[in-house]
Amino acid sequence: VRMHYVYPYPHVDRVLPLMADGRILPYLDIPFQHASPRVLKAMRRPAHQEKTLERLERWRALCP
Known about the structure:
Layout: H1 16-20, H2 37-42, H3 49-62
């Protein structure tokens, strides 16, 4: 199974162990367009730049 086009939101945290175990292909296509708080707010995105970058770092540590 391969996930495609995944936003870096908290619910994806539960899927990463499945990738690390090899049950899901360890590939994520993440639409990470902006990290600017002003731009994210204008786009009405719930993301926060620091939290998003921290989440991506945790994902990479769990499943390089």
